[in-house]
Write a structure and sequence with these properties.
CATH class of the largest domain: Alpha Beta
Shape: globular
CATH topology of the largest domain: TIM Barrel
Structural class: alpha/beta
Strand order of the largest sheet: 3-4-5-6-8-10-11-12
Largest sheet: 8 strands, parallel, barrel
Number of helices: 16
Radius of gyration: 24 Å
Order of helices and strands: EEHEHHEHHEHEEHEEHEHHEHEHHHHH
Strand content: 5-15%
Distance between the termini: 40 Å
Number of domains: 2
CATH architecture of the largest domain: Alpha-Beta Barrel
Bound molecules: D-xylose, nickel (II) ion
Oligomer: single chain
Length: 438
């Protein structure tokens, strides 16, 4: 195992809130028990291969700044294998058990499909070996169906059926790789599955094409015996103006419309939720209410920038709200908290990878503890319950049975007169929530 990439950085210790060591956890103690489970089990942190190993930290106005002394910048297999070594050294030192990757993050595309497949298989062998040696596990895999110029008009939704074939081949091989590596899930983020103008787009046809690819994936998954879950990751825009998987509600509708509902869960990302004009907790709640909340891409946007900035999540109110939802659903089963997050362009030294993950992990550890404290305190839960008390009366349950008519309801309105209402107490509840953010 390589020891060279981060020679001055030890395994990051937990030192507690009093520590002044920037390379230590102040709040994330993997073994601390919260609501009967260890923090590591609750949070199930995963590291994104693409941001950690492949993101050069460029922006639309300037070149990449990331210093990656281990990377020779080539598309060789040797370089790809070296990155795997470095990645697993990073996972070990930061203390993250899980990871996620796209096919093209880990292995270079070859001159043709056969060579591409061989490249991927070669790197997957190495990933597999490193997983075994280092006790690390794959949370989910995915195929990059958005970077290559052939996907300019979409992948599954391309106007050219030959492009669909390439996309399908990538999904097949990425599912194989995920299966071989024992991944708990497989993600579809429809990077180019959307459009910029209806002047050149048959939206009806394109949505059907996307459903066909997803059905092929379900069929293939069953034939190879992949036990993991399939996820869709909603996002409203970027790169296209209108993405077909715009938000959780759109995805659920899509799945129902095309008879895929039982086969997919959702992977909800904070920055995508906010780009869609929602809050993260709204998106999580929509997915959870449908029993389809699978996993989380943990990051956050920048309120003064209107794009997918993929920042590390550091907002304690946000992490608390997220962990409330996760605890409410009884914890992750096949999902986890994947840091789909990158350092700022100015944070270009290798050590910044550690600072970034430490800050995100500590923020989620605090969110977990605050969420557990809110649940234990019970006042918020009690208020919510009490607010709907009238629906628990005899009349309420008759209405909920769904068997009453408009005429019957009118009679009740006539008899009971003007109902008495109580305040929603938003500000009181906000203050109560804030009591737990310390
Ligand atoms: C991009 C997406 C992407 C997916 C995986 O905005 O978040 O990173 O998580 O393809
Ligand atoms: Ni994501
Ligand atoms: Ni994203």
């Amino acid at each position: 195992m390589s020891q060279d990439a981060f020679p001055d950085i030890p395994v990051i210790p937990f030192e507690g809130p009093g520590s002044r060591n920037a390379l230590a956890f102040k709040h994330y103690d993997a073994t601390e028990i919260v609501e009967g489970r260890s923090m590591a089990e609750h949070l199930r942190f995963a590291c994104a291969y693409w941001h950690t190993m492949r993101n050069p930290l460029s922006d639309p106005f300037g070149a990449g700044t990331a210093r990656m002394p281990w990377d020779d910048g080539s598309d060789s297999i040797d370089n790809a294998l070296r990155r795997v070594e470095v990645f697993f050294e990073f996972l070990r030192k930061i203390g993250i058990e899980w990871y996620c990757f796209h096919d093209r993050d880990v292995a270079p595309e070859g001159a043709d499909v056969e060579e591409t497949n061989r490249n991927l298989e070669r790197v997957v062998e190495s990933l597999s070996q490193h997983q075994r040696d280092g006790g690390r596990r794959l949370l989910w895999g995915t195929a990059c169906l958005f970077s290559h110029p052939r996907y300019v008009h979409g992948a599954a939704t391309s106007c050219e059926v030959g492009v669909f074939a390439h996309a399908a081949s990538q999904v097949r091989r990425a599912l194989d790789a995920t299966n071989t590596l024992g991944g708990l899930g497989y993600v579809f983020w429809g990077g180019r599955e959307g459009y910029s103008t209806l002047l050149n787009t048959d939206m009806h046809r394109e949505r059907e094409q996307l459903a066909i690819l997803l059905h092929m994936a379900v069929d293939y998954k069953n034939r190879i015996g992949f036990q993991g879950d399939l996820f869709i990751e909603p996002k409203p825009m970027e790169p296209t103006s209108h993405q077909y998987d715009a938000d959780a509600a759109a995805c659920l509708n899509f799945l129902r419309e095309f008879d895929l509902f039982d086969e997919f869960k959702l992977n909800i990302e904070t920055n995508h939720a906010t780009l869609a004009g929602h809050t993260m907790e709204h998106e999580l709640s929509v997915a959870a209410a449908a029993g389809r909340l699978g996993s989380i891409d943990a990051n956050m946007g920048n309120p003064v920038l209107g794009w997918d900035t993929d920042q590390f999540p550091i907002d304690l109110a946000l992490t608390t709200r997220i962990m409330l939802q996760v605890l409410e659903m009884g914890g992750f089963t096949s999902g986890g908290l994947n840091f789909d997050a990158k350092r700022r362009r100015e944070s270009f030294e290798p050590v910044d990878l550690f600072h970034a993950h430490i800050s995100g992990m500590d923020a989620f550890a605090r969110g977990l503890k605050s969420a557990a404290a809110i649940r234990e305190d019970g006042r918020l839960g009690h208020f919510l319950h009490a607010r709907y008390a009238s629906w628990e009366t005899e009349l309420g349950s008759r209405v909920r049975s769904g068997r009453m008519t408009l005429e019957e309801m009118e009679m009740i309105a006539c008899q009971s007169g003007e109902p008495e209402l109580a305040s929603g107490r938003q500000e009181m509840l906000e203050a109560l929530f804030n009591e737990f953010l310390s």
